[in-house]
């Protein structure tokens, strides 16, 4: 936990978010990268044979696209939290619009509302051009930094 | 009447045909008409050294997506490649990293154009789910659109993908 708080603080200071991304094993396994342009962060899912769900098209597994977008939202919310901590997902809703082909995929997260406890956001994923998204998602996250475990479990 | 062994074999081939399912070692442990149960084994590549919470960020989503599409294979007589229209997941508890994750999915409604599924993710106790997911899939017009993929799933031994 201490390590996490330090990493978030470091990332905010240096603008290098990669160590934080690499802390999440699945993000590391997928090879998620992020590039920061001021306040705007674009996440990149590099093409990989391991991401394929349909080998004959070939197309990226729908779950990989969904997970990449969920991680994008999680990192964006985590980095914008007033106090350090990891945003915790409550729900995630995704529309698939086009097949994700075997090439790099990009995603950007827009925070529509950030309250004290809950953040609402939307995520867009695309490949060749942003105007032709492959998927769009909406998600809610719990932002309380000390409340990393749901209570009353 | 299609027996459970048939569905099980079809789901096994479906998972085996997908590189990402092989990468995560996701296996089918039970299949019957309209229903399937998959497991994600405990594995070092998904374990975080510093954090017990959060190791599964995103993995549950992949697992629910995989089980939901596998359940459609158990609801259709012949294999059809059905793209996912939408997927919604509610996260209720944080899984622990020391136990496998199970996901039970059911394709509860089949119409001419659309398939509806629901899934729950659990660890030790199915009555204490970590997450629920619902999804819809679009059926292709005129059966399977991807004939090579269909042959792979239907167990044609001559169908191969490099």
Automatic annotation (TrEMBL), chain A:
<feature type="domain" description="Thioesterase">
    <location>
        <begin position="60"/>
        <end position="129"/>
    </location>
</feature>
<dbReference type="InterPro" id="IPR006683">
    <property type="entry name" value="Thioestr_dom"/>
</dbReference>
<protein>
    <submittedName>
        <fullName>PaaI family thioesterase</fullName>
    </submittedName>
</protein>
<dbReference type="Pfam" id="PF03061">
    <property type="entry name" value="4HBT"/>
</dbReference>
UniProtKB/TrEMBL annotation, chain B:
<dbReference type="InterPro" id="IPR003736">
    <property type="entry name" value="PAAI_dom"/>
</dbReference>
<feature type="domain" description="Thioesterase">
    <location>
        <begin position="54"/>
        <end position="127"/>
    </location>
</feature>
<dbReference type="InterPro" id="IPR006683">
    <property type="entry name" value="Thioestr_dom"/>
</dbReference>
<protein>
    <submittedName>
        <fullName>PaaI family thioesterase</fullName>
    </submittedName>
</protein>
<dbReference type="Pfam" id="PF03061">
    <property type="entry name" value="4HBT"/>
</dbReference>
